[in-house]
Amino acid sequence: MKINVNEDFSSQAASPLPSLAVVIGAQSHGPEARLEQAELHAYREALDHVAIVATTDRAGRITDVNRLFCEISGYAREELIGGDHRLLNSGHHPSHFFRQMWQTIAQGNVWRADICNRDKKGRLYWVDTTIAPRRDGDGRLVGYVSIRFDITSRKIAEAEVLAELRRREVTENLLVDIIETIPNGLVAYDSQGQLLFCNNAHRKLYDLASCSPARSPMMQSGGRQPPASGPFAPADLPTHLSIGLEGEGMSRPYIQQLDSERWIQIHNRRSESGNLVSIQTDISALKRAQMQIKHQAERDALTGIGNRTILMRRLSNLFRSRAREDRGMAMLMIVDLDDFKLINDRFGHDGGDTLLQHIAERLRASVRRNDTVVRLGGDEFAVLMRDIPDRPAVERIAGTMLGKMQQPVKVGQQTIIPSASIGIALFPKDAKTPGELMKNADLALYQAKLNGRRGYSVYDSMIRRDRKRRAVLIEKLRVSLSRDEVGVALQPQSNLRSGRHEGFEALARWKVGGAAVPPLELISVAEEAGLITQLSYRLIDKALAAMAGFRRDGLSPGTIAFNVVAAQLQEPDFIERLCAMVEAHGLSPQDIEIEVTENVILDRAAGNIAAALKQLHKKGMSIALDDFGTGYASLTHLKQFPIDILKIDRSFISGILNEKDDEIIVRTIISLAHNLGFEVIAEGVETIDQYKQLSNFGCDLVQGYLLARPMSEEESRAYLDSVRRPGFRDLPLPRSLPPDARSAEGPG
């Protein structure tokens, strides 16, 4: 068959695909030629139904188009023939796109590409285009034939896919940006424990350069073991990720300490696909804040040592550990400073705080590193020590600690010698619960205070019984005061130079069940019960009544001295009330001697007390400072208060003959008092040698068992009757002292 490439579609008007004739027209005759023509016709029919076909001359002018070309472009055949394809140019492609096309086909090569065209109505459509050269019988290029396929739907689908991909890319980039920006660490593992992903925060938390499986904290342990116990457990592992996953794949958060300064909270989740996702939140700042709050909550701000919270927690641990181990005794000591209120009143809060800081440091230095030292509050401390071998060790430790407490402390410009009392309870002997141990140590402290302070007491069952007895005494004292059952005893005071009787000191006396309650215990019970003021008024009234009775009987009782407490001196009507009582009994202010202890003049309300004493002094009453030298009163206080008499405490008088220090102190007090214009009374004089020594020192008055023990009103009347007889001064001073002389005397 001979192909005539010059044949035009116009000669094949009846053909369904006339354009094909331009490519492969046939001029053969005979059966074989007819068969070839039939095959060509079939090809034309098939191609005309699926392809868009056009032919052009060498200049690109359209010489023929098929039906599909017209349908897709919207142009009639007549509108297209003679024109060129610029009629369909959509402007989508740049000019170099078509230059490259012409360069290819002009060289006789086939060109193929996707072209976006515009139809007659302006609608864009895409065609997959192939352009091949068309030659004549001699092989010369005479034009081009193009076969196109409509790919608009595919292009739209591709565009939609590309748009979706772009949207996904934007979303993924945003998600990655968020994941890499958030401060929480994120790491994901598949169900086999293989690392899938981790973010920058995770890498920083675990100091990783990358998130390769070999560097993964989980994979370093093979991903098959749970975290080790202790504060430095390794990073969470896949098996541990799955531990505790509940409900909807959620687990309880847990905290992991990476090192001494870093903590993270880990929250694990299993995804629906079975992957394990772990979120790590750096909570180091929160943990540090919690630790700081905990430290502040468990530490005493003033001294820096622990507080009650720490003590109770360690006591609880002690009792719990008892069931697991037996490591000997533990001892709880409650340490209370003696007379701290006086120090605070004298030196102010700053001075008191300084002393507390020194005491805390001494306690801390007195114990082992693992022992517990806390401040319970105010001037009260506690020490918990474990592994104490025996009772002698307990007493040795307590004695050493007391000695350290009594070392001098400089407060401001002055040096003081503090003292403390210690109550001790032993574990497990003395208690079954922490609260019971605390209570028993407190009872022991109370006993140490009753014993005169500056000492320690170890709890035993007797202390509890004594405490119960004291509670009974408090209630009985209330009843006794209401029934006027508290009595008064009078102890005489004598002039050392003349031997003449000068007056009495009134002392409270009380019996319970026929047995006398020791004076110190009576005062202590009254103070604890809040009855000291009521007791003092009752004592004053009875003492004034006794003095008035003596005078009515023609006796010369001299002055009457009695103690008043700080609470009385601060009452607005005290002066008026006292003067009224004195006047009611027919006495004058000059008959009255007001005794105050150093504790009173050191009270926080010292200004008000000084003002009250000055008013009493102005009315003619004498003011005596009792127990001078035993407290923290200074020479400044002697100037501030209207003092007439200094009373030297019995503790100095008892050692005046044998203790050089006591002798010097007594002599100095007497000299100081006289230089300030005061008189001096020595308390607790029990021997003639003491009497003579005091006389040599120039002491003015004496009081004690050498003269007489405290007496009832009737005994005092007899005493006054005897001292007015001639020659009394030449009589031997009391022949002998009663066996209980030291314990029977006491303050009023």
Shape: rod-shaped
CATH first level of the largest domain: Alpha Beta
Annotated CATH architecture of the largest domain: Alpha-Beta Barrel
What does the radius of gyration come to? 57 Å
Mean pLDDT figure: 83
CATH level-4 homologous superfamily of the largest domain = EAL domain
What strand order characterises the main sheet? Answer: 20-21-24-25-26-27-28-29
Determine the strand fraction and express it as a percent band: 15-25%
Remind me, CATH topology of the largest domain?
A: TIM Barrel
Report the biggest beta sheet as strand number plus sense, adding barrel if it closes.
Answer: 8 strands, mixed, barrel
Q: Compute the number of strand runs.
A: 29
Number of separate domains? 4
The residue ranges in which pLDDT falls below 50 over 5 or more consecutive positions are 1-28, 218-240, 243-249, 727-748
- DSSP helix fraction: 40-55%
**Strand pairing plus helix content: what structural class?**
alpha+beta
Annotation field: number of helices? 26
Q: Alpha-carbon distance between the termini?
A: 155 Å
